[in-house]
Structure formats: C-alpha cells, structure tokens
Write a structure and sequence with these properties.
Chain B: Keywords: Oxidoreductase, Selenocysteine. The complex is a heterodimer. Chain A is mainly alpha-helical. Helices cover about 70% and strands about 0% of the residues of chain A. The mean pLDDT of chain A is about 90. A six-stranded mixed β-sheet of chain B has the order 2-3-1-4-5-6, with helices on both faces. Chain B is globular and about 40 Å long. The chains are: A mainly alpha, B alpha/beta. Strand 3 of chain A pairs antiparallel with strand 2 of chain B, so a sheet runs across the interface.
Chain lengths: ~450, ~170
C-alpha cells in the first residue's frame, strides 16, 4: 500500500519540487516575507485588538500617531506587487544561473513599463502612479513580468548578445555592459506588449491579468475544497518524509499571498475583511505545533503514554512544539514512514480545516486580518492576535482537544508496541549499553 | 542480519539541536528513526540489534574517544554490519557518521554503510567517498527517502554476504 502510494506520489512530488519556476515563486515570496512580518508588527501596534487602544495613545501622542505606524506598513503593503516582482525575478534569475541583481533590476523596470502612469483628475490627466497597480492587485502581474522578463534576459545572454569589453576594464563596468543589450531586448519587448494591450479592450496588461487570471484564481483558492486539498496533500507528503508544505506552497502560495494581502489592505483601511482562506487561516487555524497538528500528538504522548521512549521524547519536544517546532517528533518518534501515526497526522489538519472553515463561514469569528505573525507565535495567542476575538482562541483550544482525541487510539497503539519492545529487551538482558568501561 | 545503527540525538528521538551535548550511549532497541529501518529489516529476516546515539556537540569535543569506544563496542557486540545514518542534510551528523564509520571499518572487521544527503555535505562526502560506502539519500523533507533506505539495507546485505558491490556502489553511492 505504502509502496503504491509512493510510486504515484513520488514522481509528481519530485517534479514539483524540482520545477525551477515553482521553486522560484516559492523562494521569491520567501525573500519578501521578513519585510511583511516586520511591517505587520507596526500595523498590529497601530490597530491592536483592545477596545480603547487607539484613544489611549491618541491622548498621549496626539492624533497623528497612527500615521507614524501606517507609513511603515504602507511601505510594504501598498507595494506587494512590485516587491513580488523583485523577489521572484531575483530567485528565478539566480536559479537560472544569471546575475540575480541584473535580472531583478530588469524585471522591476519591465513591471513599471506595464504600469499605468497617468491618473484622471477631473478633466485633467496628470502624471502619477496609483498604488492600486503596485499593491496586492498587481501581484500576478508582478509574478508574470518577473518570469517573462528573466526568461527573455536569459534568452539574450545565452545567445551572447553582449558587448564585450577589452581586458583590463574593471569587472563592474564590464558586467554592466554585458547586461546592456539583453536589458534593451527585454525593455523593447515590454514596450511592445504595453502598446499591444493599449489597443485592446483591456487597455493595460494589469487589467488583462487581473481579470483573466488573478480574480478567477482567487475565487478557486478562496474555497474550502481548495484548502482541504492543500492540507491533505501537505500532511500526506510528510508521512513519506517529504516536506509537504514546500511542495504544496509551490502551487498555492501565490494565491494565498494575494488573499492575505487583500485582507491586510482592508484591515489597514478599516474596510470589511473580504476573504476566509488566507495564509493566516492555514497557519493559525488548521495545524497546531507544526505540520500534522502535532501539539495534539505531544499532549497524548506526555499525559497518556507509558513507554519510556515516547514519554521522554514528549517531555523534550513539548516546549519546541508549543512554538511550532516539531522536527524532533517528525524524525524522532518517528512520523516519517510510520503508517500508524500517518493516519491521524493526515486526518487532524483536514478535520481542523473543515471545522474552522465552517465556523468562519458562519461568521462566528471575524475573518483573519492578514497580519503575518512570526510562525513561532503559540496557539491561543495567535488566534486572538489574528482576529481580535477571544472566540478564535476558543476555537483553537477546541481543535487542539479534538486533535488529542483523534490521535489518542493511534498513539496508544504505538505506545503498546514500544512498551512490548522495552519489556522484551529488559527481560532478555539490560537494555542500556554501557560505554563507560570500554 | 544483525545491524547496529548510529544516530545523532535528533534521529534517536532524544530531542532537537538543543540536545547536541547528549553523551555517547546506546540501547539494545530500535530507537527513533531506527524503528522505521527495523520494520524494513524485519521483512528480510534481519533486525536492529542496538542503537548507538551521540550528540553532535559531544562528538565534536570527544572525537577520538567516541570513535574508539564505538569501534570497541562493535567488536564486543559483533553485529553483521554497522549502519551510520540516515543523516539527511544534517552536516554535523554527516561528519560524525562518516568519521566514525571510517574508524570502525578501518580498525575492525565489521563492514560499514553510511547514508548521507548531498546538500550541505559536499565537503565531507568528497573527503570520505573513496574510503567509505556512502549511499545517496534525500535531504530533510526531500523525495525518495523510502527508496534510499531500501538501498542502504541492500548494500548492508551485500557487504555482509561479501558479494561484489562495485556496480551497486557506482549506481547508488557517492
């Protein structure tokens, strides 16, 4: 059974893991993630979910204090499309063996070429760039511009369309000239693309990509079946030793990123939060203590199991587990290639997803605000911070306990097996090997 | 086939990186990751006779002592083969596995098989690939773990039976 699953899953997982485009998308979003986390903290301080918080600080610092914080959060959240273009082009350029800085610079210029640069103000047309094109709505345009511009840049480099400088010219100057013709080729291509779109009903590449791709994909991604499939595959792959989220994020991360940024912008502007299935929903309301929701598993190991090995590992792994680190458990219990634990390891995140999805759909809890918390934020605190509602913490607690009940019979089975092994070893002879006198 | 396996503290189920000072020890059991390997071995009338474990920091500070003690304990317990790893891409563990594996194979008659991932371990692999059989395996979270375990066990069996391993090593080892 396990072998059959592996035969089906392995080739797909290997292809996804090794696909340079998907890998670059994942790596590209990771490049800008630290910026999002840091600026999220500023946003959270400016909008802390405690009644009277804003009034309290206004009384001390004056009415302008929120602007100080929003200036920092705006610096990232209003430019996520541009930043996505930067991160993805850098990662893709690097993975394609190009000078990543040059690839990234060309991609950003290409993105700006595609961006409308005039705004109608009354009857006048003035030169300006609206952040709507550079923010969350421009993420897919940024993504495609990054991939296409780097690919065109690489096409030119591979054909040696470069100006060779004589020996003795400093490397910085020579590298700059190397990039001259390929950059010109990319810029010319995007110049033509902009003209072509201006002749269509869409008017801009932004309108075309947003209407034809970003909006439909958002609708598909922002659904319970999509997130159920995401969590099922992520957990299933872990059971075979494969880092599941690395594979699933290759496909889903652009969509979840856009959905999260939409909520974040709405939260920042004080508008209604539009989406349920954000990255926060997945990180904070479907797994606790890492992949497989192993904090529930750890609780069973600590309080129910009698095998020395399991109990000892439970004690050692509980503190890291609270902060979302489950490496000792994945390899030490082990979870990897362990058919007994595989069943609840897959079921628990799926059940959590289903329950959370229903609870949020019924509006029992406010939607997540898009503020990206550090991934080590413990459950209960993370639920409250991400929604501003203590009911979210209650949901997390409920799912944690439900996870304990689901894990219980399977962990007991493993416990029994280990207890038998320990008893047999103790009966036969001393289990411990003494290295002190050898 | 009776196998002794050497693991670091993470793979032995004794904690994370913070437990790297775990002293050299062992149990006549399949601990942690060894349990997975034991299940595969049992299908072939073989088993893990003991798990040796050592924290990577402890090893780094006591290299000669650990290598000597493991070699002597192997000679005393007489396994058919010593399996060092799977180390994934944990570089400290990979170094410990290769150095201890080489010490045991050089100073005793016990055959050794190592299992190491290429990622983060290029230096140690290039240093030991001609001195030790190192089966290729995926990095942590990579694809192909189950196949690599099968290959590690197959090479152990071949070495125990003193079969020609040239073709196998060319195909599946560094």
């Amino acid at each position: 059974m396990q072998k059959k699953f592996e035969q089906i899953l392995m080739p797909v997982a290997t292809k996804l893991a090794n696909n340079v485009v998907l890998r670059s998308l994942r790596d590209g979003f990771l490049i800008i993630t630290p910026l999002i986390i840091v600026t999220s903290i500023f946003l959270l301080i400016g909008n802390f979910p405690i009644p009277g918080w804003a009034d309290f600080w206004t009384g001390i610092l004056g009415p302008q204090w929120t602007e100080w914080f929003s200036a920092v959060s705006d610096s990232v959240f209003s430019f996520t499309g541009l930043l996505a273009c930067f991160g993805i082009s850098y990662a893709y350029g690097k993975n394609r063996g190009l000078r990543a800085v040059h690839a990234s610079a060309v991609a950003i210029v290409s993105f700006l070429i595609m961006t409308p640069t005039t705004v109608e103000v009354g009857k006048k047309t003035v030169g300006a760039v609206q952040t709507i094109y550079l923010g969350p709505n421009g993420i897919f345009l940024g993504l495609f511009t990054a991939l296409v511009s780097v690919e065109l840049f690489r096409f030119a480099i591979k054909r040696n369309w470069t100006i060779k400088m004589p020996d003795g010219v400093p490397p910085a100057v020579s590298e700059s000239f190397d990039a001259l013709l390929p950059s010109g080729f990319v810029i010319l291509a995007f110049f033509l693309v902009r003209i072509i779109f201006s002749l269509t009903d869409f008017g801009t590449a932004y309108n075309f990509i947003y209407t034809m791709l970003q909006a439909p994909l958002k609708n598909v991604g922002n659904s319970l079946p999509s997130v159920l499939l995401y969590n099922f595959l992520a957990s299933l792959l872990w059971c075979f030793g494969i880092n599941g989220p690395t594979i699933t994020n290759s496909v889903w991360s652009p969509i979840f990123f856009v959905l999260t940024q939409d909520n974040l912008k709405a939260f920042q502007s004080g508008h209604a939060l539009p989406h349920i299935y954000t990255q926060q929903f997945i990180d904070i309301f479907t797994t606790y203590g890492g992949g497989g929701s192993t904090l529930s598993l750890l609780i069973v190991m600590l309080f129910v199991c009698r095998s020395k090995r399991i109990k000892e590992l439970g004690k050692l792994a509980i503190v890291p587990g609270i902060f979302g680190i489950n490496e000792p458990l994945i390899f030490g219990l082990p979870v990897v290639l362990n058919p007994i634990i595989a069943i609840p390891f897959i079921i628990v995140p799926v059940v959590n997803t289903l329950i959370s999805g229903i609870v949020f759909s019924l509006h029992w809890i406010p939607y997540t605000n898009g503020v990206m918390l550090p991934w080590t934020t413990p459950p209960l605190i993370s639920g409250w911070l991400s929604t501003g509602s203590w009911l979210a913490s209650l949901l997390q607690l409920f799912e944690l306990v439900l996870g304990v009940l689901i894990y219980y019979p399977f962990v007991k089975m493993l416990d029994k097996q280990y207890l038998n092994e320990e008893a047999a070893a103790e009966e036969a002879e001393d289990v411990d090997i003494d290295f002190s006198n050898i | 086939m009776k196998v002794i396996i050497l693991l670091d503290q993470i793979q032995a189920g004794l904690g994370g990186k913070e437990k790297a000072s775990t002293e050299l020890g062992g149990k006549k059991l399949a601990m942690g990751a060894a349990d997975t390997i034991d299940k595969t071995l049992k299908k072939k009338d073989s088993s893990i006779m003991a798990t040796f474990f050592c924290g990577t920091e402890f090893y780094e500070a006591n290299k000669d002592i650990v290598q000597g003690k493991i070699t002597r304990m192997c000679q005393k317990m007489q396994p058919d083969v010593l399996l060092v790893g799977p180390t994934y891409d944990y570089s400290d563990f990979a170094r410990m596995a290769c150095e201890v594996g080489y010490a045991v194979e050089s100073n005793s008659e016990i055959p050794v098989v190592a299992m190491v991932a290429q990622e983060k371990n290029a230096d140690i692999i290039s240093e030991y690939k001609d001195k030790l059989n190192i089966v290729k395996m995926p990095k942590k979270g990579g694809t192909g773990l189950s196949d690599s375990i099968d290959r590690g066990i197959e090479l152990c069996a071949k070495k125990v039976k003193k079969e020609d391993t040239t073709e196998f090593v060319t195909k599946y080892c560094f």
